[in-house]
Design brief:
Layout (H helix, E strand, L loop, with lengths): L11 H8 L3 H9 L6 H14 L21 E6 L5 H16 L3 E6 L4 H11 L5 E5 L5 H8 L4 E4 L7 E5 L1 H14 L4 E6 L5 H16 L3 E6 L5 H5 L2 H6 L4 E4 L2 H13 L9 E6 L12 E4 L2 H18 L12 E3 L2 E3 L15
Parallel strand pairs: 1-2, 1-3, 3-4, 4-5, 5-11, 6-7, 6-8, 8-9, 9-10
Antiparallel strand pairs: 10-12
């Protein structure tokens, strides 16, 4: 008695036989179409339609491989979501995810390395890849995550992991040149968190640039990398003042300007102040903040594109040794918070 072909569910082997290809080729056509020639894939799809073959939810990786199952979700971990820098970065990543019909999980580590490690541990099984933005993790912890999930870092190069980094040295060299041309002979740096790789690079770049221009450089560590932290730096600054100040970020610099104004110290008449980031609020202060433009939105976009491309191609290895970071340029934005150096240091 003959068997009705359509009374049974069409299998991948049926499609392969009718198309004249191996079952593995059919599997790749549906799960990883980029690995199959366009003509071959279309031929397979036509045969599958004719036979009534329907796949289950299409995965970018073979669904049978549990460790590579595609959840249509990536995560971005930021150091502080209250900082406008990360809000803009997240929006750029979100746009790229939306274009590829992927979900985005946003995680805030609150400038806390152990917390960042814990939330990644809790969520890693539910996401397909991770973007670490200004991560506070130890390098070893980040590499452990990269062993099981594709990882891209922003503003933090880690050996063996692809990274997108703003080249702060260029921008800070322009800042020191600008301040030197205005007659300043000394700069105070309001430093960020010790766990911040960017903080270390900003101090290093300032040190090199000040040495080049024979300018004195002092350092004060902010209690926190935000408006409040910048405001509270004033007492330490007053003990050893300079006519120019560079903040770890815009928020720190704006907080510091507020403290100066509360003491009736004129900016830039007595003290010039420079920020880093060029956030939207840098133009809303009085005076408008001279700052370094950091390509955060572009970094977010590139990181998302690279991570998504990695996911869609399902590479066996998620990281490569000696992987060079992608460097993005930075430059100074001159506004009215910087001016000619005062002839006398503050005494208030």
């Amino acid at each position: 008695m003959a068997t009705n072909q359509h009374s049974q569910e069409t299998t991948i082997r049926d499609v392969a036989k009718a198309a004249g290809v191996a079952p593995s080729t059919v599997s790749r056509a549906f799960s990883r179409p980029g690995r199959v020639k366009v003509e071959t894939a279309q031929h397979i799809f036509d045969i599958a339609d004719a036979l009534g073959y329907r796949t289950k939810r299409i995965h970018s990786c073979p669904p049978a491989e549990e460790s590579k199952r595609f959840n249509n979700l990536i995560a971005i971990v930021v150091a502080d979501l209250a900082n406008p820098v990360f809000a803009g970065m997240v929006k750029s990543v979100l746009h790229e995810c939306s274009d590829k019909q992927l979900g985005l999980l946003v995680l805030d580590s609150e400038e806390n390395g152990p917390l960042e490690r814990d939330i990644l541990r809790q969520t890693s099984n539910h996401v397909d890849g991770v973007i670490l933005a200004s991560s506070r993790l130890a390098d070893s912890s980040a590499r452990k995550i990269a062993e099981i999930k594709p990882v891209i870092t922003i503003n933090r190069p880690i050996r063996g992991i692809q990274s997108i980094v703003a080249d702060i040295h260029i921008g800070l060299l322009e800042v020191v040149n600008h301040l030197h041309a205005l007659g300043h002979t000394g700069i105070t740096y309001l430093a960020g968190p010790d766990a911040s790789w960017q903080n270390g690079m900003r101090w290093r770049s300032l040190t090199i640039a000040c040495k080049q221009y024979r300018m004195k450089l002092h350092r004060i560590t902010c209690p926190s990398p935000n408006y409040s932290g910048g405001y509270r730096c004033f007492e330490a600054f007053r003990q050893n003042p300079t006519t120019a100040v560079v903040g770890y970020n815009d928020l720190v610099s704006i907080g510091f300007i507020a403290a100066l104004k509360s003491k009736k110290i004129n900016v830039p008449g007595e003290v010039s102040v420079v920020g880093i980031d060029n956030t939207s609020i840098s133009t809303l202060t009085t005076p408008a903040l001279t700052t370094i433009d950091m390509p955060h939105r572009m970094a977010g976009k590139m990181a998302a594109q690279k991570l998504i491309a990695t996911l869609l191609h399902c590479p066996v290895k998620t990281s490569k040794p000696n992987m060079k970071p992608v460097m993005l340029p930075t430059h100074i934005i001159k506004r009215t918070s910087t001016g000619q150096a005062s002839k006398a240091l503050i005494s208030k």
